[in-house]
Each structure stands twice: as C-alpha cells, then as structure tokens.
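Per reviewer request, we include the raw input and output of the structure prediction for the construct analysed in the revised manuscript.
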Amino acid sequence: MATALAPARRVSGPLSRPETGVHLREEERRATRVLIVDDEDAICHALGRFLTLRGFQVETANSAAAALDQLGRNTFTIMLCDIRMPGMSGLELVPHALQANPDLAIMMLTAVSDASTATDALSHGAMDYLTKPIDLPALEHAIEKVRRKRELMLHQRQVDRLVRDEVASRTAELEREQHALRTLTVTVTETLINAMEAKDRYLRGRSHRVGELAASIADEMGLSEDTIEAVRLAGRLMDIGRIGIREEVLNKPDKLTADEYAHVRGHVRVSMEILAPLKHLGVVLDYIHDHHEHYDGTGYPRGLAGEAISLGGRVLCAADAFDAVTGGRAHQRALPQDKAITYLAQHVNSLLDPFVYEALRAVVTSGKTLRFIRPVAPVVAAG
C-alpha cells in the first residue's frame, strides 16, 4: 500500500474540517483503548506511536483475524481499521467486531476517496471514516469526536433500556391489576350465582357443571388452552342473568306459558347488561351472549345460525343442553347419560352443531363427565 501518513493537514471525508470544542481530558485519553488494524506494519507503528504519545492505550493487529483475536481477549473503546486488507477486508471485519464488542466505536481508513466506500463503511456499522494519507492532528481530533459519539450512543442505549424496563414493569403491573380485577369479578359473580342456585335444587351446582363440561368438550375439539379456559369461565358466569327472573317463574313446577317463557329468555339480555361493562372478559362475553343460539337459527336473543354463532357459544349450548336433560326439572325426569346422548342426537343440525355434538358424545362416552354431573348433595338447614 502507499504511505498513509502526511505531515500536512490533508484529510478528506466527514472529518476533513476538525471541529472545535471536542477535547478529551487526560484521564479520558488514558481510559481510551484503541485497536489499530492495518496490514502495513509501518502504518500501525506510526499511528500507534503517535496515539500513545498523546496518552491513549494502543494495540495493533496486522489482519482481520488478528483483530478478532484481540477483540476476543480484550475490551477496546475504538477500532481504527483499514478497509483494504488481504483475506477478510475491513468492511467484512466490522460486523464480526461489533458482535464481539457491541460497544465498540469503529473508524475506517481508506485510500479510496469516493462516496460509495464511505457509504459502505457507515452502513456496515462504522461511526466515521478518514481517507489516506492521514493528517495526525486530524486523526486525534477524529478519535476524540468518535469517542464522544460513542458515549452518546451508550447513554442512549442506557436510556432505551431504562424505558424498556419501565414499560415492562408497568405492563406487568397493569396485567396483575387486570388479573386481580378479573378474579374479583368472577368471585363476586359466582357468589351471586351460587346464592341464586341454592334456592332451586335442580339448579344447584349447575354453573360449575356446565363450565367444566364445556371445557372438556373444547379440549376434545383440540381448541387452544386460552379458548378452553374462556369457555369454562363463560359456563360459570352465563346464568348470572337468572337473577332477573321472577321466583314464581323460576320455580314453577308446570310448563311455562308463552309470556313466562319470553320472560325467561330475557335472562341473556340481563346477563349482558351485568357483564358488558367488564371489557377485560373479552371473548367470554361473546360466548355468554350466544349460549342460547341454535345451530339452525331458531335460538335467541339474536337468531344467529351456523358459524355466525361463536364457537364458544356453540360449545356452551351443547353443555347446557346435556346438563338440562340429565339434571331434570320438576316437570321433567332426568335422563341417564347414554339416553341423554341419544336424545340430543335428534337435535343435531337444529339445536346443536354436529361437530360440537360429536365432541360431547366422545367426552360422555369416555366417562370424562362423571365428576362434573355427579349430583350435588342438598343443603340441609341447621335446626
């Protein structure tokens, strides 16, 4: 290579005009470790001697491989690197050097004074470049400038890290608060439902049974864990609207009149009015809204049909229907599980989604529902 040092102030590139006001203190220079990488020993020696006399700590390497070895064993502040070297070039070295030391500030030396070389150097991760021959006072100023730029970069990284940590902390705190609110909501709602169910021996434990059976069906269908849990929760909360049903209707031993049936159907609307403000329940609200929709569109409250009904709503409909026919009513005998499955088969494609019914049948046939539909012992009042 041609001689790269010049006594005159002959420097081109972005650092051709040294700026004033950027001067390192003596202790800052002593703390600055510089790695000079050039395949010409004379250049390494000359630059190294100059920078050492100016108070910097200097090491040299005559190839990219030797530089990587140095970077693997020591920590440097700045790497001053020639672009054109045998084997791995300076441009190819840059990403490897930054991988070894992400905090490294890199300056490139090039004998080619064209814009494309400068662009390549900067795009590869270098902070600046100088063209040869090098004016030594300008080199010192360039190193001081790059060191300041590196300090700003490290400070910005620290700020970014603090911001990320703060965002992560606040997000985690918000998630904890949302979880606590969700838990409180479920607890309060279930308390109300349990109090309501305690008044009717046919309904006692129903919400828990429907929720667990619905979760088993969703699991049999291969749905995600989040969906399974949402279905389970919807089953436990879906009957909160029964609070709005008059007791004489709720406990009526005979078949309901048309007006009374319309009154009962209103419990879905009441459920949504109670739960709708709780936006954090997400899809659980959709499942509750749809649990009385029929696959053929004859259900309520919106008369949805087929896949227009949320999948969770279709699952709850099947679990709810199974619990109703196996639990019995004052005017209706409870059916054994096998007969309940046979009975519900007659309502596939009308009341029930055929795919959901098959999952229900598989769950019941395998015995997974036994612990969910076991009758709850009646509450005996203390005398």
